[in-house]
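Ticket #4471: structure export looks truncated?
Reporter: QA, pipeline team
Priority: medium

Steps to reproduce: submit the single chain below to the structure queue and open the exported record.
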Amino acid sequence: MEYNEFITHVQSLAQSSSREEAERATRATLETLVERIPANEAEELATQLPQELGECLLGREAESNQSFGLQEFIMRVSQREDIEPTTTAIHVRAVFAVLQNAINPEKFAKFHAHFSHDYEELFTTSPTSEVPAA
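Actual output as written to the record:
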């Protein structure tokens, strides 16, 4: 999946008012993912994404593999996006849905396995293939 396609899908699923908002949401979510999953998983995920997005997942090994729940995840993304958590949750769900469609299913399953049960609501959005192109 190309960068523009990824961002367009995030914008559509999140019903974002602007492309910039979708880009900010995507970057904030990916930067927070780096803190949550092991560094080697982040690197593997980065190889599956457009280079511009993959870069968000690299170079932060010292901060990786922290264990924190969904609310903390949303709060961290919210701080990065500088918006309120309710909107952030919508954005994160959209980014996760596009990730599911952008990376190979085995890699996504491996990625998904790093999250506790309280994160399941982030994995319930339908794949972007069902979303009409904007």
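Status: closed, not a bug. The export was complete when the record was re-opened. Leaving a note from the reviewer for reference: The chain has one domain: 3-127.
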